[in-house]
Design brief:
Number of helices: 7
Largest sheet: 4 strands, mixed
CATH class of the largest domain: Mainly Alpha
Helix content: 40-55%
CATH architecture of the largest domain: Up-down Bundle
Strand order of the largest sheet: 2-1-3-4
Shape: globular
Number of strands: 4
């Protein structure tokens, strides 16, 4: 059985959601963040040298990084699904782009905002640049979702699962009101039964600062 090393309020919710979409059985091994630092506990270092989540164990393999896990699970278990387009098609290259866009571009200014929020007024000089980059990425994604329910094609793919996580905190904070397509998109994803099952088992992915 697939084991998911799942940290509360983290990217690993993506993996639970994907597993539910694939209809696979899995075991959750849960970890809680430190109450003060909000960092992952040291026990995760025993699972993977980076000490981060998600990590899965499957058939003797240890797989880390959200995008890598998503690709692995879809390739290994999603042969009859539409969770990834056929290789070397236009849809595939769009899918590949958005699969990497989430962590390669979109998440960074959000993480900078999260970290610098601990600095109080000292972070003020950084905010214009941070907010400009958040708007840059969100405006781009908002435009790409114009007239679309999904980022690629007419059905859910791993790219949707990857990018929905990026929008979870902004949505919970009411920051997507000016991006109508993004707000609609998140609510559409939240309505999926598999998403509900993942949240029931693993908790909300929205990160609550200390």
């Amino acid at each position: 059985m697939i084991k998911v090393h799942h940290l509360s309020q983290s990217r690993s919710t993506r993996i639970l959601w994907l597993l539910e979409e694939l209809g696979l059985e899995y075991e959750i091994i849960s970890y809680e963040r430190d109450a003060v630092s909000r960092l992952a506990p040291p026990e995760l270092k025993e699972i993977h040298p980076l000490g981060k989540s998600p990590v899965i164990e499957d058939d003797g393999r240890m797989v880390a990084e959200s995008g890598s896990i998503i690709e692995y699970l879809i390739e290994a278990y999603g042969s009859n699904s539409k969770l990834a387009p056929a290789p070397r098609t236009d849809d595939y290259w769009r899918y590949n782009h958005f699969l990497h866009f989430a962590e390669g571009s979109a998440i960074l200014p959000l993480m900078l905002y999260l970290y610098t929020s601990r600095l109080g007024d000292a972070a003020a000089p950084l905010h214009p640049r941070i907010f400009s980059e958040i708007d840059n990425h969100f405006s781009y994604l908002n435009k790409e979702l114009e007239g679309r329910e999904f980022l690629v094609g007419d059905d859910l793919t791993g790219a949707d699962i990857q990018n929905t996580y990026v929008l979870e905190n902004p949505y919970s904070m009411g920051l997507l009101d000016q991006y109508a397509n993004l707000k609609r998109y998140v609510e559409f994803m939240h309505a999926r039964p598999a998403y509900h099952k993942a949240i029931e088992r693993g908790g909300s992915p929205a990160f609550t600062p200390a």
